[in-house]
Amino acid sequence: MLVALSFASASAVIETDPGVLSQTMQRAYEEGAKKGWPFSATLYYQTTVFDAGRSFALFKPADPHYAEVAAIAIQVATDAHYDPLLNDDASLWYVRDAAKWVQEHGDADQAKKASALLDKIVAGDADPAALARQAEDDAIANATAFRRDPDSLIQIVVADVRAYNLTLDRRYRRLMFLHASEPTMPLTRLPDPEGAQLFAIADEALHGGGGFTETDRFEAKMLDERRRTTPALQTTGRTRSVPNEVRLSRTAPADEYFGRTRLSPLGAGNEIIRINKYLDAGWGKRMAQDALYLESSLEDWQHQYPHDPTLPPRLLAFYRLLVRIDDVTTQPEAKKIRNLVLVQYAGSAQARELAAI
After folding, report:
1. Phi, psi (deg, nearest 5) at residue 86
2. How far, in Å, CA of 226 to CA of 212, rounded?
3. What's the rounded Cα separation, in Å, for the pair 135 and 208?
4. Do 254 and 262 meet the contact criterion of CB atoms below 8 Å apart?
5. Disulfide engineering: 337 pairs with which of 129, 153, 236, 319, CB 3.0-4.6 Å?
6. pTM, whole model, 2 decimals?
7. Which tens digit of pLDDT belongs to each residue from 88-102?
8. Which of 84, 78, 162, 170 shows the shortest CA–CA distance to 121?
9. For residue 168, is pLDDT > 60?
10. Residue 320, phi then psi, degrees to nearest 5
11. 41 phi and psi, to 5 degrees?
């Protein structure tokens, strides 16, 4: 059962302030309860809980509310079948930290849920195939739990697309066609880029692309017919709806500074350019330390503003920089950044580009 936590009114207006985010969390709970907790309201509440929790973890870890929000985060994550590949909050580091805290300090029931969540995260960390299977299972579990609520049902197709991108396993492509071609599947709710990719692959199947089965082609034809007869499916640029108060906290301010070298978002971009120029000049592994300092800034930025739409391009550029250096110290970091983009920004163009490398 979803739970709420009351907070005193906060005067701060900083988007990352725990008090401000806690108020947003409280309003999200009240709105969700009023609507009877449809899937979209549950996911929105989960987002506000994660935002408030990461803010306490970053700025007020000793505050008593840190523990309370952590417990709520694990409860909500359990109720909503939290899945790293499907979740769009890019706050896996916080979910992991909250689960560890609750595992050690929560009551028996809370600790059991936290342990189960950690086990799932660890299994996904170790094996992309396991992560893909988890996404499929969690999407189906939510569709069942929320009685095939349209917003929960469409997550099955999102899971198929993302699992295919992650693994390039044709089984997920077949599942994508199978699920998407169901007459009751609310395809008009499928966001981009998953929607665009679904129909692009269907077009490929219809026009002689290799590796498709006859069943694939039949289902692709059904999808094509549905698209041609459904005006809403011919619209490009569908996006997920985001409440304005959450949208405000997405983009990092230009004058905020992150990491040990205190780089702003613009400064981080300039540092990537600078290091690449030295690599062009043949400095190679001598730039490893500079790259690791830069990673500190990018990590701090991502922790504070995980929804920032400018982050995935920066992270992809940084991954390529690390690969260019190819030092024993940068290789593990390159793998970490690659996983961050592929999993936590799975819906981004950068994730699709990286998966193809």
Report:
1. -90, -30
2. 20
3. 29
4. no
5. 319
6. 0.88
7. 999 999 999 999 999
8. 84
9. yes
10. -65, -35
11. -70, -35
pLDDT in tens, 12-64: 334 678 988 999 999 999 999 999 999 999 999 999 999 999 999 999 999 99
Convert the pLDDT of each residue in 235-269 to its tens digit. 654 555 544 445 445 788 889 999 988 999 999 99
251-355: CATH topology is 1.25.40
How distant, in Å, are the alpha carbons of 10, 50, 83, 102 from that of 72?
20, 9, 16, 10
Domain boundaries, the chain: 7-126, 251-355
Q: What is the pLDDT of residues 190-234, one digit of tens each?
A: 988 899 999 999 999 999 878 899 999 999 999 999 999 998 887
SS3 readout for 150-197:
HHHHHHHHHHHHHHHHHHCCHHHHHHHHHHHCCCCCCHHHCCCCHHHH
Amino acid in the structure at residue 18: P
Residue 275 C-beta-side C-alpha neighbours within 13 Å:
26
Structure tokens at 143: 């569709």
